[in-house]
């Protein structure tokens, strides 16, 4: 293979769009959108978007550490009793820390082989459901879970363009229909932006 045909792998991860969610009438929490765009063969989907809260990041780090004992994992932004979800500086500082955590995690080949990481980044499964899936206690595989979540959400323009290459125009006319379940809008169900171009600094 000539260097001209070699394509360098990349993984872009953005943690953005913090939103306050009500758990019940007394408790609220903030979740963050995690946007992934990649050409890596490690990922089932090349573009995905999910929402996760801080305690799910804590769970992920604990599970990754228990499966990769010899690796020193990066730290999460510290949990502080003084964290104020109404303070934009506190929220943005945490968002930046979560993004740095994921950027470092995604550079390690051993950690990239952990199915929990992929379920965390590319599905909305709860930690309990991710554990069940990884341990074979579900009817669906890791790849099935990721593809099933993706089919419930609107496609991203970049993936649509990549899949249209090599197909004739007749196949590309049905971009608004999803899986026969009616139209779905991930900006409502997932809170994700359809365009990967808008990055947060």
Structure summary:
The chain is α+β, with helices and mostly antiparallel strands. The chain has helices at residues 54-67, 88-105, 109-112, 115-122, 127-134, 142-151, 157-164, 186-189, and strands at residues 11-22, 28-38, 47-53.
Give structural notes.
With 201 residues, this protein is of the alpha+beta class. Helices cover 37% and strands 15% of the residues. The chain has a three-stranded antiparallel β-sheet. A hairpin with an 8-residue loop joins strand 2 (28-38) and strand 3. Helix 4 packs across helix 5 and helix 4 packs parallel to helix 6. The chain is globular. It starts with 10 loop residues before the first strand and ends in a 12-residue tail after the last helix.
| Gap from first CA to last CA | 37 Å
User: How many β-strands, per DSSP?
Assistant: 3
Number of helices: 8
Q: Strand portion, in percent?
A: 5-15%
Quaternary class: single chain
| Structural class computed from helices and strand pairing | alpha+beta
Compressed to H and E, one letter per element, the order equals: EEEHHHHHHHH
**Residues in helix, %:** 25-40%
How large, in whole angstroms, is the Cα Rg? 18 Å
What is the makeup of the main sheet?
A: 3 strands, antiparallel
Shape: globular
Query: Poorly predicted ranges (pLDDT <50, ≥5 residues)?
Result: 155-201
Averaged pLDDT, please?
A: 79
Sheet with most strands: strand arrangement: 1-2-3
């Amino acid at each position: 293979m000539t260097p001209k045909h070699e394509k360098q792998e990349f993984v872009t991860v953005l943690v953005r769009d913090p939103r306050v969610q009500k758990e019940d009438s007394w408790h609220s929490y903030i979740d963050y959108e995690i946007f992934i765009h990649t050409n890596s063969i490690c990922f089932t989907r090349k573009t995905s978007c999910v929402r996760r809260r801080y305690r799910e990041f804590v769970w992920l780090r604990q599970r990754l550490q228990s499966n990769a004992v010899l690796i020193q994992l990066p730290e999460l932004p510290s949990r502080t009793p003084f964290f104020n979800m109404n303070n934009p500086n506190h929220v943005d500082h945490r968002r930046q820390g979560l993004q740095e955590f994921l950027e470092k995690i995604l550079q390690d080949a051993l950690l990239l082989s952990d199915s929990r990481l992929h379920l965390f980044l590319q599905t909305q499964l709860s930690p309990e459901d991710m554990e069940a899936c990884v341990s074979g206690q579900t009817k669906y595989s890791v790849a099935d879970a990721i593809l099933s979540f993706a089919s419930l959400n609107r496609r991203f323009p970049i993936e649509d363009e990549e899949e249209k290459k090599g197909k004739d125009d007749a196949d590309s006319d049905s971009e608004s229909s999803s899986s026969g379940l009616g139209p779905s809008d991930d900006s409502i169900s997932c809170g994700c932006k359809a365009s990967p171009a808008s990055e947060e600094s």
